[in-house]
Amino acid sequence: MADVAKLRANLEKRGFLTSYFETARQAADYLTEQIRDTTVGFGGSVTAQQMGLYERLAPSNRALWHWQGGTLEQAVQAEVYITSANGVAETGEIINIDGTGNRVAATLYGRKKVYFVIGVNKIAPDYDAALWRARNIASPKNAQRIGAKTPCAVKGDRCYNCDSPERICRGLVVLWEKMKGVGEMEVVIVNEELGY
Ligand code: SF4
């Protein structure tokens, strides 16, 4: 069982804002209140999709998502960016693995605010465990989702550290602290299982 209090304390020590909701619905309501009259970009995120965040935010913002007909370039330049994380350590590190780079690029510089929306399934006790989950749970499931021709996509069971041309794991970004070049970074924790 994740220690959410410890996670929040350690994230806040590292300069991240945090919020916590029992349900995805409550978190979506909160984000809909927080994000208005701006441009909001989305990273490829099953969590955001399951929560219907694009549909919730599009009426009151310019919402940009390549899963909804937008371009990657538009989304990464939005004022506000929403993504999830592949693993978050209770010690406070946020881990994302990316293939194209848009999702991690948008979290590193230039946004007024970045939200990481995470279900409790993304939380691991420490850095090593969070990296393990990113590599062996999140990435294989994502490779399977997109139908990549990689060994992990066959069963979605673990990482085989492949050298496939379709390898989706090309860059690893670990946020140790809030980036100086981003206005605010907030981790929105949801007490439900969301995404991979
Ligand atoms: S490195 Fe290859 S085998 Fe491992 S998760 Fe990524 S795509 Fe799958």
What does this structure look like?
The chain is of the alpha/beta class and 196 residues long. It has one domain: 3-Layer(aba) Sandwich (Rossmann fold), CATH 3.40.50.10420. It is built from 8 helices and 10 strands. It has helices at residues 4-13, 24-34, 46-51, 53-57, 72-76, 102-108, 127-146, 151-155; strands spanning 17-21, 39-42, 62-64, 80-83, 87-89, 94-98, 113-119, 123-124, 171-175, 184-190. The strands form 2 sheets. A 6-stranded parallel β-sheet has the order 1-10-7-4-2-3. Strands 8-5-6-9 form a 4-stranded mixed β-sheet, sandwiched between helices.
Could you say what the CATH architecture is?
3-Layer(aba) Sandwich
Q: What's the count of strands?
A: 10
Distance from N terminus to C terminus (CA atoms, Å) equals 17 Å
Radius of gyration, in Å, reads: 16 Å
Number of H- or I-type helical stretches? 8
What fraction of residues sit in β-strands? Answer: 15-25%
Secondary-structure blueprint:
Blueprint: H1 4-13, E1 17-21, H2 24-34, E2 39-42, H3 46-51, H4 53-57, E3 62-64, H5 72-76, E4 80-83, E5 87-89, E6 94-98, H6 102-108, E7 113-119, E8 123-124, H7 127-146, H8 151-155, E9 171-175, E10 184-190
Parallel strand pairs: 1-10, 2-3, 2-4, 4-7, 5-8, 7-10
Antiparallel strand pairs: 5-6, 6-9
The structure holds iron/sulfur cluster (SF4).
Iron/sulfur cluster is lined by residues 139-140, 143, 150-152, 159-162, 164, 167-169.
